[in-house]
Amino acid sequence: MSGTEDDELAAMKDWWQRNGKPLLTGGLLALVVVLGWQAWTRYESNQSQGASALYQQLLETALTPSGQADTARVADIASKLKNEFGGTSYAQYGSLFVAKVAVDNGKLDDAAAELKLVNDKPASPALGEIARQRLARVLAAQNKADEALKLLDGDADKSFLASREELKGDLLVQLGRTDEAHAAYQKAKTA
Length: 191
Fold this sequence. Notes:
The chain is mainly alpha-helical. Helix content is 83%, strand content 0%.
């Protein structure tokens, strides 16, 4: 070996001494991050598939051709959705179906309780508005139109404005406030 090659080898050894450990550590860290990300996306995909399968079962149970849902089975599947996938859109749509079945069976208190859960912590603004409007209808059926009207105070997304104003009009008619109801119906028509 010549002196130049010895110098190059010594320089490489010196470089490796200074940079080898950080390079290995960085490489291992990158590998851990990539594997962790892949595991997380697999987990998310499995969670979504599990929630989707349960939700599909709920739909099949709640939306029967006869129109008569198996209330016990609906409650059981919805409970699994809440326990295993609580706070997700699937669980909250499940709550909307539980409320629908409760209304169909004249159990307005049960329906109101389900809808309040979604309304209090909606997974999305759209779900929150759907729950709010359905809860207002349930409250109106319980002769609590004033409470229902308060629920509809505040701003609504433009896509829900017409249905919200129409509902306000219905509630105002129920309360005998026809002039205000007319104004709400006009807003609904404009929207």
